[in-house]
Amino acid sequence: ADACLERYQLSGETVGVCKGAALDMLPLQHPFQDRIVPLICGEHVTADSGTGLVHTAPAHGLDDYFVGQKYGLPTDNPVGDDGKFLASVPPVGDVPLAGVFVWRANDIVLQALQASGHLLCHAKVQHSYPHCWRHKTPIIFRSTPQWFIGMAQKSPPTPLLQSGEQNLSTFQEATDSLFCNEESSGAIDTSQNTDSPLCKRGARGDLTLRELANRAVEETEFFPSWGRARLEAMIKNRPDWCVSRQRNWGVPMPFFVHRETGELHPRTMELLEQVAKRVEVDGIEAWFSLNSVDFLGTDAETYQKLTHTLDVWFDSGTTHASVLARREELRAPADLYLEGSDQHRGWFQSSLLTGCAINGRAPFNALLTHGFVVDGKGHKMSKSKGNVIAPQKIFDTLGADILRLWTASTDYSGELTISDEILKRVVEIYRRIRNTLKFLLANISDFDIKRDALPVNQWLEIDRYALSLVQQLQDQVLADYDRYEFHLAVQKLQGFCSEELGGFYLDILKDRLYTTGEHSAARRSAQNALYHITHALTRLIAPILSFTGEEVWAILSGNEEVSVFEGAWHGLPDAQLDNDAIGAWLTLNAWRGKVNKQLEEARTAGLIGSALAAEVDVFAAGADYDILAHLKDDLRFVFITSRATVHRVASTDEQRIDVAASLHEKCERCWHYREDVGSDATHPTLCGRCVSNLYGAGEARHYA
């Protein structure tokens, strides 16, 4: 009190001091109306400016509204849509307020307070106040009738509105509309809790809409999984949904309401059907242009056409009913709704609530949430920062498949990082996959599956092992696709092309493809495996590298008019290898890595040039010896050396690999260094197996 007296230079005496709570609900006489108003406590009021006492109007401010709800104060709204006081507002003394614009009424009230001796001081206080963004004029908060979907309402199994029913209005007070000036207006929306639902067919059972939504969330699959907890929290804490808007555009709410009470017309369901039929013929403008008399007759004198439009989130949230359920080529519920992480509060939630209200379940089986694209440093893209990478630029310079591959290779559960350096790495991944496909296509160009197919049990063992690898790849990639984990699928496809194929199988296979007889069983065995690998790999990359997939498919099918997407995943034959055999090839691959390391050391030391210039002696113990020795002479093809000999040792401590330069001549055709080079005088530069492959029965291969 003393600070207030000093602040406004008033004289007075402090007669008592108490806490504000002691004055709570103290009755006060209104200064110029014959009514009692309570003194209430509000945490939004401060004492560092003004008097610490403020006028409270629950219908005209957010803070006032919430404190009014706390104390159960009426939300009387004496201001009309035009920003002027209603005709029912009593005068201030002898001065009428009806029809007076609210800002001009301030002077009338101040004059009345001063005349009655209630105004001790009049001073302006500078503070922050909302203004219209367009007109830069102060706004007026008003509580207006709005329409809500009630989260706590238990939905009956039949339509809520029946012909002849009364008291079905669902409007509730909310601090919604605001005015900029007499000519223009805007709106903000804040909803309150209410048990009244929008007039909709409810979900079945004795559950509230909130309970139905929570159950639907439990039944929905989320990608990534953390989306479930986020949506659950939002549904649990959200207020009722205010679905009405005061706009000059949008989908109308085709209701007729009583001019004074706001109650719905008793024939609302019948009228809704009539309006719907007219909209089907004349479009959405039919509602805005229709004459109420045509529908209501004499009732038009007491009922008016509602001018509210629906919240746009209600529009998008009901696409499951207006699109999926109405088109024969589509399926409802949807397999998946996909959007950014901000849509847990938007489209995901509005679709969930409308689906539960109409059908008692979510309109989707799964939700996928992705992050947003940022630059290489994790910064939001901005033209002013110059860090924007335009998709069209990537199309024009690198091709659409590079952009698709970047998208698929990035973990979308967080922010998606992109930069020129990242795109360079993506190009390398693409080049590896494309070069692998080129190699595969080149080596099955003379292969006809109908003419050259061999039973799998006649394939060489390494070819059957490669078949088992592609079967494993296909199973894993399809599982990744089912979980929408595209970045894991890309990792597996890249690894398969660079490691299993490029670093192992195709590297070993080149000798057989290039040196054995054109129609030999050894070469056809390899081509059978390559045929299935190519078909499987082409289909697996197609969802990501669609243009490349179509390009390869046109070659495989021989028909550019047929799309790769018209077929199914490739049906692979059984590799006819048990786990022990597959494990043996894993062991061989591990030994191959050790041999390559020794060969590289020999090359660095100048002992050999290429790997084929070397002869290798492998000293192995136990099961490893059995696995290596099982391949016999074919082991050299696995190691890509001119000779590979296995020796048994007693323990793993004695295991080693010896590399020596071959002392034999080099075959000019297969580049192997062999003792029998020149043994056929007719072909002095060829080894014995090349002579046999060219002019004889051909070499026999069993394993590699």
Describe the structure concisely for a colleague.
With 704 residues, the chain is α/β, with parallel strands linked by helices. The protein is built from 23 helices and 20 strands.
Could you explain how this protein is built, in words?
By secondary structure, this protein is of the alpha/beta class. Among the domains are: 2-77 and 87-115, Valyl/Leucyl/Isoleucyl-tRNA synthetase, editing domain (Isoleucyl-tRNA Synthetase, domain 2, Alpha-Beta Complex), CATH 3.90.740.10; 258-307, no CATH class; 391-566, Orthogonal Bundle (Isoleucyl-tRNA Synthetase, Domain 1), CATH 1.10.730.20; 602-663, Class I aminoacyl-tRNA synthetases (RS) (hypothetical protein PF0899 fold, 2-Layer Sandwich), CATH 3.30.2320. The chain contains 23 helices and 20 strands. Strands 5-4-3-7 form a 4-stranded antiparallel sheet, with no helix packed on it. A 3-stranded parallel sheet has the order 6-13-12, covered by helices on one side. Helix 14 packs parallel to helix 17 (486-515). The model is unreliable at 158-203 (pLDDT under 50).
Features:
single chain, 704 residues, alpha/beta, Isoleucyl-tRNA Synthetase, domain 2, Isoleucyl-tRNA Synthetase, Domain 1, four-stranded antiparallel beta sheet, three-stranded parallel beta sheet, 23 helices, elongated
Q: Note the main sheet.
A: 4 strands, antiparallel
Classification by helices and strands: alpha/beta
Shape, per Cα inertia axes: elongated
Separation of the first and last Cα atoms: 99 Å
Q: Please give the number of β-strands.
A: 20
How many helix segments? 23
Low-confidence blocks of residues = 158-203
What integer value in Å does the Rg equal?
40 Å
Mean pLDDT score:
88
The name of the CATH topology of the domain at 391-566 is Isoleucyl-tRNA Synthetase, Domain 1
Proportion in helices = 25-40%
Going across the biggest sheet, name each strand in turn: 5-4-3-7
**CATH structural architecture of the domain at 391-566:** Orthogonal Bundle
Can you tell me the CATH class of the domain at 391-566? Mainly Alpha
β-strand amount: 5-15%
